[in-house]
Amino acid sequence: MKDDDVLGMYLRDINRIPLLSREEETDLAVKAAAGDKAAKDKIVRANLRFVVNIAKKYQNHGLDLTDLISEGNIGLMTAVEHFDVNKGYHFISYAVWWIRQTILKAICEKSRAIRLPLNRANELVRIEHARKLIAGNKTEDQEFEEVAEMLNMDKKHVREMINISREMVSFDAPVKGSDRDDTTFGDFVEDSYSDAPDTGVMTEAFENELNDVISTLKPNEAAVLKMRYGIGVEKPMSLREIGEVCNLTKERIRQIEKHALVRMQHPTRKSRLESFVA
């Protein structure tokens, strides 16, 4: 059986495993902390699809998807061993950090002859992601400058990190001799994993965590943030529109929003959300 067939079967199998409710997760986490192996295994199995979602974001960095998933699963199992349900976090919010760290560590150690420090490997992933966001008709120098500004990095550092990554073949690399000028290597690679569990599950987890964090603010701050950024409402609203709903001036809404954003930067709140940011 081909590797792609095995991976496809694995993705279909884990997609059939039901997610845990918050009550089930809490009960299993308590048992797991007491050494119950069956409880640990059940938590791991219920969260395997999250590992796939995270691993897919680190493709094209020297390891194939199967290896990335395997490394991420190790991180998931480590997270179960360290998880403290009494701190009030959703398990996946805590586990994301461990999953990413083990994947990045593997990329550092196994994907290239010259090993990168973990923080440099993470920077390289962020730089490649930023390059995709600003893709367009730009010179290389303009691209470096925009990436540096977006990530608050030195332009020279961005250039050096991209030079390090040149040994890898990018899906965005142009293909010479094609009929179209904009043809890239990625155009010839079939996406065999479109049915795999992916962004929907992770997005739901983030939205749940975000709502939990916002609920710790004052009621007026929470309401303003949700309306301002379109959280749980049809679309983001302007300061004036929010003022009309709340019967407050536009300037007062601005003040409430500013204060709420400052409070969202508190380490306790920030730590619950930053693990979702690559």
Automatic annotation (TrEMBL):
Keywords: DNA-binding, Sigma factor, Transcription, Transcription regulation. One of its GO terms (biological process) is DNA-templated transcription initiation. It holds the Pfam family Sigma70_r1_2. InterPro entries: RNA_pol_sigma-70_dom, RNA_pol_sigma70, RNA_pol_sigma70_r1_2, RNA_pol_sigma70_r2, RNA_pol_sigma70_r3, RNA_pol_sigma70_r4, RNA_pol_sigma_r2, RNA_pol_sigma_r3/r4-like. Residues 67-80, 238-264 form the RNA polymerase sigma-70 domain. Gene3D superfamilies: RNA Polymerase Primary Sigma Factor, Winged helix-like DNA-binding domain superfamily/Winged helix DNA-binding domain. It comes from the Bacteria. SUPFAM superfamilies: Sigma2 domain of RNA polymerase sigma factors (SSF88946), Sigma3 and sigma4 domains of RNA polymerase sigma factors (SSF88659). GO terms for molecular function: DNA binding; sigma factor activity. Sigma factors are initiation factors that promote the attachment of RNA polymerase to specific initiation sites and are then released. Belongs to the sigma-70 factor family. This is RNA polymerase sigma factor.
